Amino acid sequence: MTNSQAFLFGYRIDLVNLSEAIQKAWDFVSSSSSCHVVTLNPEMIMQGEQNTSFGQILKSAELALPDGAGLVWALKHRGLLVKRLPGIEFSEALLAKAEAERIPVALIGAEPEVLSLAVENLKRRFPGLQFSYTQHGFFPLEEEQAIAEACAKTKPRIVLVALGVPRQELWISRYKALFPASVLVGVGGSLDVWSGQTKRAPALFRKLNLEWFYRISSQPFGKQGRLKRTYKTLPMFVVKVLLAKES
Question: Can you tell me whether residue 186 is helix, strand or coil?
């Protein structure tokens, strides 16, 4: 797959495979600019349509990956055969690259115990990985800037933010300037998976682009409220795709 782009309702989507996405992100580590990576899905697009400030953040990200299966379907509806690139797989490949290049990493978000377990498990998986800063996500709003500044002082080159959508994207947009030559990624529930508290969908579900269905089935009414959120947004997204003219 070549490094090209598509647009859906004004949202740019980078049509890259995993190795191309890592290379594109890594180019920023070697430069003086920072890179905001968004792992785009239908729910985020629909939130962006309701909240124009959030939508503009998504549209201005330096790298937008086709994470959601609904996004892949929408692009296929327009004649583009695109493979889904799950955000968690991109982040894990990014961590492997950081380990190999001995680049410091920061993790922000999740519950304190979840964060601690995730760091522990990631250290076992990537023994050479250097964590310059970690901070759980349950901090008061008035401490947000101080935390961002404290993180920036440790000079991480990879910053993974797990504060949930849209908070993590807003955080990255607000403090991105503090992290030159860094890659900042909103990783959602990835820390829950890395901690061992949540399991990813089995390989068959992932192969069939049904990971979303597995997550809804396994956590329909939990703290993530997946069924309620998907019930509200996915049908609206489908109708929007079917009724929209190509752009």
Answer: strand
- From the number of C-beta atoms within 10 Å of its C-beta (0-12, 13-18, 19+), residue 245 rates as exposed
Do the domain assignments include residue 212? Answer: no
- What value does the mean pLDDT of the chain take? 89
Residue 219, domain member (yes or no): no
Specify whether the CB–CB gap between 38 and 44 falls below 8 A: yes
Distance CA 215, CA 43 (A): 14
Q: Report whether 214 contacts 202 (CB < 8 A).
A: yes
Q: Is the pTM of this model over 0.85?
A: yes
Say yes or no to pLDDT of 83 above 70: yes
Residue 11 has pLDDT above 60, yes or no: yes
Domain CATH for 165: 3.40.50
Q: How far is CA 28 from the centre of its chain?
A: 17
Task: Provide the 10 A C-beta neighbour count for residue 100.
Answer: 11
Residue 47 lies in a domain: yes
Instruction: Note down the domain range covering 86.
Output: 4-195
| pLDDT (tens digit per residue) in 189-228 | 999 999 999 866 566 655 656 555 555 556 554 544 555 5
Identify whether the C-beta of residue 4 lies closer than 8 Å to the C-beta of residue 54. no
Our CA angle for 38, 43, 48, nearest 5°, is: 70
Max intra-chain CA distance, the chain: 50
| Structural domain contains residue 161 | yes
Count of structural domains within the chain = 1
pLDDT, residue 2, reads 46
